Amino acid sequence: xxxxxxxxxxxxxxxxxxxxxxxxxxxxxxxxxxxxxxxxxxxxxxxxxxxxxxxxxxxxxxxxxxxxxxxxxxxxxxxxxxxxxxxxxxxxxxxxxxxxxxxxxxxxxxxxxxxxxxxxxxxxxxxxxxxxxxxxxxxxxxxxxxxxxxxxxxxxx
Length: 157
Hints:
This protein is 39% helix and 24% strand. The chain is an alpha/beta fold. A hairpin with a 4-residue loop joins strand 3 (91-96) and strand 4 (101-107).
């Protein structure tokens, strides 16, 4: 049973674009590779054919996975968000116990990209921040076992 996938409107659009690209352009590329590999002759000992068929199988699996996510997606309605409480879709300005400031956007796990400061609501930091209000301090246990305190300075939608 697939769990609910939480997406922002931008994340939904990206997901749809990826499905569209994979279903059209990428499928055509792989089909062309299979066609070219068949022309090399005996497919029983043809590594190009095997590679192309494997790529096709992985492509179809990726498309199926993305379509499942799309079917079970719930999109965050920006009008339902408020700057009072941290939720998926909120942008949170925090200060850690070392005085280091950071800004994170809380997103669903599908859209998570820590390098872009987009944290999943299921990550340790995301879980700790969701439900907090301005001025609240959240304790986060990091993967290395250490604990960090994060103070919410500002919440934006």
